Amino acid sequence: MQPDAGNDLDGRLSRAILQCKPRIRERGLAAGEPICAVRAMRAVFRLAYPGDPGAFAEAACALANPDALAVAYSTPEAAIDAVRSGDCDAAVLPVHNSVAGPVEQTLALLPAPGLREVGHVEVAITMALLALPGVRLDDIRTVTSHPVALAQCSRFLATLGARSEPAPSTATAAAALARSRARDRAVLAAPRAAVLHGLVALVDDVGDDPDARTRFVVLEMSDGVLVELLQWGQSGLAVLRQDRGEADV
Fold this sequence. Notes:
By secondary structure, this protein is of the alpha/beta class. It has helices at residues 9-24, 33-41, 56-64, 76-85, 104-107, 147-152, 154-160, 170-180, 191-197, 223-229, 234-243, and strands at 46-50, 69-73, 90-97, 101-102, 115-124, 128-131, 142-145, 163-166, 185-189, 200-203, 213-221.
């Protein structure tokens, strides 16, 4: 889900320095000064992830930086763009599942121009079949989830006999089911998604491998982009100080 940029302070700080760029190139600062100042002015480090609250990517954000604010975006492309625009400090994206293999949707975007990989985390995947309260297992005709989730639960789905339908993420599928109120559909998602979206677990631990894990990469702006930012100048920082109500020094 794409967050509402609105008038939040962190978003305005990021956009302010980006908008200053054309007129402050001529006055550079010492290496490391501007970008450190911008990040220090943020209230919270922001991590972009694809999906909705309750996605495994959100759990990956908590592992990557427990103190960060995880911000949901509709797609991996949107999460990457959030880092490029300055709305977020890093993106956390799935790249490989131990059962289903590579996450092709993400790998097609990598390497992402202007970004670099700065780390990775692995998340243990516990998948459940979720549905609306009161729905029975034999009511289910369609199961939706991320393609990787569907693949890593293939044996269970074969016994269920329901049609499989791909979704942008596990939690996005859960949110869509909660909105639709469809009683012949279920989703594969983390148990936490049931709590967040008002669903119940019909069957727990439906994955083919109880030790399944997904690897997520953490992407930040590359050195080349940082060098360009570092040459912007004092006037850009002045705009940021004014936006925070601070005196120009």
